[in-house]
Write a structure and sequence with these properties.
Blueprint lengths: L2 H18 L13 E3 L8 E3 L1 H9 L3 H13 L7 E7 L3 E6 L1 H14 L13 E6 L10 H19 L3 E8 L4 H17 L14 H14 L8 H25 L7 E4 H6 L2 H11 L3 E4 L2 E4 L10 E5 L4 E2 L1 H15 L4 E7 L6 H10 L7 E6 L2 E5 L2 E4 L10 H8 L1 H9 L7 E4 H5 L6 H21 L15 H10 L2 H11 L4 H19 L10 H24 L9
Parallel strand pairs: 5-6, 5-12, 6-7, 12-13, 14-16
Antiparallel strand pairs: 1-2, 2-4, 3-4, 8-9, 9-10, 10-11, 14-15
Helix pairs in contact: 1-3, 2-3, 4-17, 4-20, 5-13, 5-14, 6-7, 6-8, 10-11, 13-14, 16-19, 16-20, 17-19, 17-20, 19-20
Length: 560
């Protein structure tokens, strides 16, 4: 159980006991919030419960805080607490027990690679859909941030006790794919020596020219002998397969694997889109107007309506297929929650999709949509946005090749998705303590080195007196280690992974402070008992740091 949750339980018990004893009037329900204290003189944690209860209890906050603190001191079984006391204007400060902190070294090592896991999800099914770009070419750097954000959230929800499905929605139908397929056909014909103009709005990227040449080399000129429509259909099937294989390789560079690749085209061909429209019709949500079919707005007139099937046999709109896709998520596959990670350019689509989910009879609160903003890149003193200019990273592969997967993941995860960010390429690639990625991973490598040295010196440290861990730096390190369960809970509740890199850095910093102040391996035999206890603390730190890096999708190097 996270320490803040346990402390909150003690505060609730103290309130109940004080009320039962007549020391405090009935409080009713109140949310107990436990925060880290500022300054060692204020203990380790505090709660403002007394301030929040002052109006209800008709008492001064400090008087309420004093009663709560006294009641907490009377709890017979609270090994985590050394003492609790009231502080103006109405806080209850809590200091953790040194003996209990020492015992957490054993608890962390016993949990091992599962340290930090909690069960707030209780097995609820959650789908995290992210990246999901059209299969029209390789992933570019603009997709990398969404990939890291989505996979980080998925990792956190698993650690929080949810049953997580990672999904890629393959937009292999619709107008953009039609234009792409027409362009591919023309590029193929041009590669085969035929003079043919590009279609209106054609894809002009060099990638498609190269792919068309490759297709001609692999398949020969057989498509030149087919009916155009037949050739386009067959080439489209090959192209989607090849492009998805390439995208799989791209995301694998970031350590990402999907559980499901969901095809939009297959959904349309299966009749699921038509079933969804009929379902909305039965609920009175579909309006026919101007030859098109519209999803009715919430009484807002025509301006509140949105087209789901175009007029003149134009087929489903992007919005229409998205409704059917989310109907499949909730009504067919029964996900308890759905988290979509989109690019910032989809901002205008958020409100209407949540409204559409409500029109399906599903609580819109079960759908969370995260928008990730654009990234600019800093090279030396110059800040640039990604483009096809020479010398600027274009594809995800190029970025990973330049700075590595771990740097990409740490840096993209370190800022809130809704904040624009600047990616310093030179800093990310550097091997210096100024680079937070290097700093964190170096701490893990140093830990591994210490443990290797202990093995080489044949120090037996499985049995140790942890009561010898009394140094201020040792206590600070243990307190930092035990924050991880709270970080996981808070991150899952916020649906955001940005706390992980901050925690990893602070844990590495606490370990560095401990390492600099407390000699772990001593040549003096008299220091052996302390060395054994400190080796156990080092090992506990290893588990906490490795788990955090794992949640971030990063490696935990043993040597650097």
């Amino acid at each position: 159980m996270p320490i803040t949750e346990q402390l909150a339980a003690y505060v609730r018990q103290a309130l109940k006991d004080a009320e039962a004893g007549g020391d405090l009037p009935a409080a009713g329900s109140v949310e107990i919030v436990i925060d880290k204290s500022r300054g060692a003189e204020n203990g380790d944690f505090s709660t403002n419960a007394a301030l929040r209860l002052a109006r209800t209890m008709q008492m001064a906050p400090i008087a309420i805080a004093e009663k709560i603190a006294i009641s907490m001191g009377a709890i017979s079984d609270a090994p985590e607490i050394e003492r609790a006391w009231a502080a103006a204007p109405g806080f209850v400060n809590i200091q953790l027990s040194e003996k209990w902190l020492q015992s957490q070294v054993v608890a962390v090592r016993a949990a091992g690679t599962d340290f930090g896991s909690v069960d707030i999800g209780q097995g609820e099914s959650v789908q995290v859909e992210f990246v999901s770009v059209n299969p029209t070419g390789p992933l570019h750097v603009g997709h990398a941030r969404g990939a890291v954000i989505g996979s980080g959230i998925a990792n956190l929800f698993e650690a929080a006790g949810y049953d997580v499905t990672r999904e890629y929605y393959v937009n292999d139908a619709g107008n953009q794919m039609r234009v792409y397929n027409d362009t591919l056909y023309v590029r193929y014909m041009q590669a085969a020596g035929h003079d043919m103009p590009l279609p209106e709005g054609a894809y002009e990227g060099d990638y498609l020219v190269e792919y068309a040449r490759d297709l001609l080399k692999r398949e020969g000129d057989r498509f030149t002998k087919m009916d155009r429509a037949e050739a386009i259909t067959e080439m489209a099937t090959l192209s989607v397969k090849d492009t998805l294989d390439m995208i799989r390789e791209d995301v694998a560079l970031l350590g990402i694997e999907y559980d499901v690749w969901f095809s939009e085209l297959a959904m349309l061909e299966s009749g699921k889109f038509d079933q969804t429209i009929r379902y909305l019709e039965d609920r009175g949500q579909i309006v026919d107007r101007d030859g098109a079919r519209w999803l009715s707005g919430d009484g807002d007139g025509e301006d509140g309506d949105n087209v789901v099937i175009r007029s003149g046999g134009g087929g489903p709109t992007y919005f229409g297929t998205d409704i059917a896709y989310h109907h499949d998520k909730f009504a067919e596959r029964h996900f308890g929650r759905v988290i979509d990670v989109w690019g910032a350019d989809h901002h205008g689509h958020v409100a209407r999709l949540k409204s559409a989910v409500g029109a399906l009879g599903i609580d819109p609160e079960r759908l969370t949509i995260i928008l990730n903003q654009m990234v600019s890149f800093k090279e030396g003193e110059e800040t640039v946005r990604f483009s096809k200019r020479k010398g600027v990273m274009v594809t995800l592969r190029e970025l990973v090749g330049e700075v590595g997967s771990d740097a990409c993941r740490y840096i993209f995860m370190s800022r809130s998705p809704d904040a624009q960010m600047e990616f310093d390429i030179e800093l990310a690639a550097s091997q210096s303590m100024d680079n937070p990625v290097y700093y964190v991973q170096y701490a893990h490598a140093r830990i591994s080195s210490i443990l290797r040295n202990a093995d080489e010196q044949e120090v037996e440290w499985e049995e140790a007196d942890l009561g010898l861990l009394t140094h201020e730096a040792e206590m600070e390190l243990i307190k930092r280690i035990i924050e991880l369960p709270d970080v996981i809970v808070s991150s899952a509740e916020r649906v955001e992974a940005t706390q992980l890199p901050y925690y990893a850095y602070e844990l590495a910093r606490s370990f560095t402070g401990f390492y600099e102040q407390c000699r772990v391996l001593s040549e003096d035999p008299d220091d052996l008992p302390v060395s054994k206890a400190r080796l156990q603390l080092v090992d506990a730190t290893r588990y906490a740091l490795a788990r955090t890096l794992s949640l971030m999708g990063m490696s935990a190097p043993e040597k650097m």
